[in-house]
Design a protein that fits this description.
The complex is a heterotrimer of chains A (about 500), B (about 45) and C (about 90). Chain B contains one helix and two strands, in the order βαβ. Chain B is an alpha+beta fold. In chain B, strand 1 (about 10-15), helix 1 (about 20-30) and strand 2 form a beta-alpha-beta unit. Chain C is built from four helices and two strands; from the N terminus they run E-H-E-H-H-H. The chains are: A alpha/beta (about 500), B alpha+beta (about 45), C mainly alpha (about 90). Chains in contact: A-B, A-C, B-C. The interface of B and C includes residues 3, 12, 18 and 20 of B. Chain B: It holds the Pfam family GRDA. Chain B: This is Glycine/sarcosine/betaine reductase complex protein A.
Chain lengths: ~500, ~45, ~90
């Protein structure tokens, strides 16, 4: 076990959702389908959800901490037909924001003024922004008065800017970052700006609202966007750009690129940085994926459902030194999927689950809860993509059967007791275990749980550089160090 | 039709099922002549 | 990969649920059921089998099968997956 002074803890978790129904058309799958079949756009627009419906959607309430996964399990699916009454867009772990305010934040944090917004559009959202704890006077100054319609039209017509539409109304545009560089094309600029602003939203909840900004030494990005230009397509360090706009003036940063597994990698590395004494406070951040908006929209349309992939998810996790209270990450029981391990489910399960448990002398049943790929099945099943969390929990249960910790007949009970329903939007890296962090921290400090394991996989093969997959796990445990009780 | 020995196998795996390389190992052990493997990921 | 003659190519699946198994099975036999991809309308007529099918296990090295696949026999709904590929055989 690490020495008391350097035992890394998770001190705060923020999970945010930005409801962006008018950006769904810019998701990768919707865009390709609209290009091939233009009539698809009307179908997508007709199936858009209102903000109220998105905020009341039970999985989103679980995402920001207003519902526990157990509460969600009690609600019969499909969840989109069961909006919560009096649902609040503010929860203990974060908040759900509307498209207009988020686009205004995006424009306000866009240093090259590539994303422009119409003045009347900005005007419609001024009141909400003026009361938002995450939007300041400096942001209003940076946002300015907007770009007039004539200029927006001109930019679209003669400079090839991407129009931003609210239904049919032109409310803004996004310019190419460079006239001769496809890596700075308008779609990529929009994707990266939205990843940035959604991450800023989450980090500001930590740095500003909780006033921890200047304590943060290092910010680590874990998103799947690629920030760069033609000579360095994935140059990165969006983390530092996010830190700049989130009042983390004492921080520098870098990005961890590991597909969906990046958040777990980043949390483990961040914990190691704190344990080493190099940094006192590390923030792991990840912005939303514009590309994944509307990924399964065809299944939703086919089943007469609203389009459920209409939110950008973002996360900020603060890792700091032991304060005698916050849950601890045990760096001696990290699960790594090595090159030699092989790609069989058995090998992956042994590397991510059995080996770290063995290092702590624990059996599978000794962990109170496992968090893994938490994709919302309401989203995935209509498109024939199955129930990802359930599939993963059944593998875990089979491992327990193999080790004779449970019988084959006990698999369903095991899944119910140690697993949870998926409640994350299909936002790639965000769905990979981390949505449970807020719930875990509460259960590990309120006295109900002693250990939770977070394990995630990464589909490296999608980049065509390897056939391997990847994975990483860590165990978050109750802080039993009673000697040092001051809160960080 | 179900014989694998001497055949060319297209292995279509899935990240949350059995990945392509794992299928490839199995069918090679069954005598498959050539294997092309893919792993799909839908989330 | 170059196949000479008939029945030289076999598709072996590792899909985890009935829906995805049916979709891929149809795509490589009678044609893409979504009528949307590059294989829509093109019946390839390829033989398809799921890796969890006992006929694959029977032909494979037992130790290899156990280490690569064994864990998934309980994790997945094996019977339903195998049945989803066998619908292509009855036609």
């Amino acid at each position: 076990m690490n020495s008391i002074g350097n035992q890394p803890c998770i001190k705060s978790v923020k999970l945010c959702l930005s409801h962006v129904p008018n950006l769904v058309r810019h998701g990768s799958k919707p865009q390709r389908e609209i290009d091939a079949h233009p009539e698809t756009l009307d179908e997508i627009l007709r199936a858009a959800r209102s903000f109220e419906d998105a905020a009341a959607y039970p999985p989103h309430q679980a995402f920001i901490g207003n519902l526990t996964p157990e509460d969600l399990e009690e609600i019969a699916r499909p969840w989109h037909s069961k909006p919560l009454v009096n649902a609040s867009p503010i929860g203990p772990d974060g908040l759900i924001v509307e498209e207009g305010p988020l686009l205004c934040l995006t424009a306000a944090t866009d240093p090259f003024n590539l994303l422009r917004l119409d003045p009347q559009y900005i005007g419609r959202h001024r009141e909400v922004l003026s009361t938002a704890e995450w939007f300041t006077k400096d942001d209003f100054d940076a946002l300015g008065d907007g770009t007039p319609q004539e200029t927006l039209n001109e930019l679209v017509k003669s400079r090839g800017a991407l129009p931003l539409l609210e239904k049919d109304e032109l409310i803004g545009c996004v310019e190419n970052g460079h006239s001769e560089d496809s890596s700075l094309g308008r779609e990529i600029v929009l994707e990266n700006l939205m990843a940035k602003s959604s991450a800023v939203l989450a980090l500001r909840m930590l740095s500003g609202v909780e006033e921890r900004g200047t304590d943060i030494d290092y910010v680590m990005g874990c998103g799947e966007e690629a920030v760069g230009d033609r000579y360095q397509r994935g140059g990165g360090n969006l983390a530092k750009a996010v830190a700049e706009h989130s009042w983390c003036s004492n921080a520098t940063g870098s990005d961890i690129k590991a597909f969906c597994c990046a958040p777990n990698h980043a949390i483990v590395i961040g914990a190691a940085l704190v344990a080493s004494g190099l940094y006192k406070n590390v923030a792991v951040i990840g912005g939303g994926s514009l590309a994944k908006l509307g990924m399964k929209f065809q299944g939703h349309l086919r089943n007469g459902m609203p389009i459920l992939e209409d939110v950008l998810a973002s996360v900020a996790v603060l890792i700091g030194e032991d304060d005698g209270f916050s849950p601890v990450i045990d760096l001696e029981s990290v699960g790594r999927h090595t090159v030699a391990a092989g790609s069989s489910p058995q090998a992956i399960a042994e590397a991510l689950i059995l080996e770290p448990l063995a290092s702590k002398g624990l059996g599978i049943l000794d962990v109170d809860r496992y968090a893994t790929e938490l994709h919302d099945p309401d989203i995935t099943e209509p498109q024939g993509s199955g129930n990802t969390p359930l599939a993963n929990y059944r593998v875990l249960a089979s491992l327990a059967v193999q080790r004779k910790e449970i019988s084959r007949e006990e698999i369903p009970d095991f899944v119910g007791r140690f697993g949870m329903p998926g409640f994350s939007p299909t936002q790639g890296h965000i769905a990979s275990a981390v949505p449970f962090l807020g719930h875990a921290c509460r259960s590990l400090t309120s006295g109900e749980a002693n250990h939770t394991m977070f394990y995630a996989k990464g589909s490296l093969f999608l980049g065509r550089m390897t056939e391997m997959s990847d994975g990483m796990s860590f165990i978050l445990s109750r802080n039993t160090n009673a000697k040092k009780r001051q809160k960080g | 039709m179900t014989e694998l020995s001497g055949k060319c196998v297209i292995a279509i795996g899935e990240r949350d099922g059995i990945p392509g390389p794992a299928i490839a190992e199995v069918v090679r052990s069954a005598g498959a002549r050539e294997v092309v493997s893919f792993t799909q990921c839908f989330v | 990969m170059r196949a000479n003659g008939d029945n030289e190519v076999v598709v072996v699946l590792g899909t985890p649920d009935r829906d995805s198994t049916e979709i891929v099975t149809q795509t490589v036999t009678t044609g893409d059921p979504s009528y949307a991809g590059p294989l829509s309308g093109i019946p390839l007529g390829l033989p398809v089998i799921h890796v969890l099918d006992e006929r694959v296990a029977a032909q494979s090295d037992p130790a290899t099968y156990s280490s690569e696949i064994g864990l998934m026999l309980d994790a997945l709904e094996t019977d339903a997956l195998v049945a989803a590929t066998r619908t292509s055989e009855s036609g």
